[in-house]
Amino acid sequence: MVLWFTFITEALGTLVLFLRFSMDFPPGAALYHAVYNAISAFNNCGYSLFSDNLMGYQGDVIVNLTIMGLIVHGGSVLSCSTNCSPGSRGTKKTIGSHENRAHQHHPPHSLRGFFILSV
After folding, report:
1. Rounded to whole angstroms, how far apart are CA atoms 27 and 52?
2. Three-state SS at 59
């Protein structure tokens, strides 16, 4: 489930960025920049192939909304996938050998936060 969500989200981000970057670059370069920046944003690593990062697109609504959406969705995929799985409501989560009692979440709260950040 997580892999499909990741793949679909990055593919949609790549498509939007490709359509925008194809106005500035030849198709091959536009696709390369789109794939790299979509994966980078989804993983929130902050890398870009542009020497000025994305400053050249600071006023571009399409690029900014796409990058922001990828960052938010990429940051929430792990939290939502571990807290929203069937049968996880009210169960104790463990990470490694430590109990994670302070961070018990219920699926409706995780989903609500995810969708609020998405919109």
Report:
1. 21
2. coil
| Class of residue 117 by CB neighbours under 10 A (exposed 0-12, middle 13-18, buried 19+) | middle
| Domain positions in the chain | 2-85+104-118
pLDDT in tens, the chain (119 residues): 778 888 999 999 999 999 999 999 999 999 999 999 999 999 888 888 888 888 999 999 999 999 999 998 888 776 665 555 555 555 555 555 455 555 554 555 555 665 665 55
Angle (CA) 8-10-16 rounded to 5° is: 100
- DSSP letter at 96? T
Q: What is the separation, in whole angstroms, between the first and last Cα of the chain? A: 22
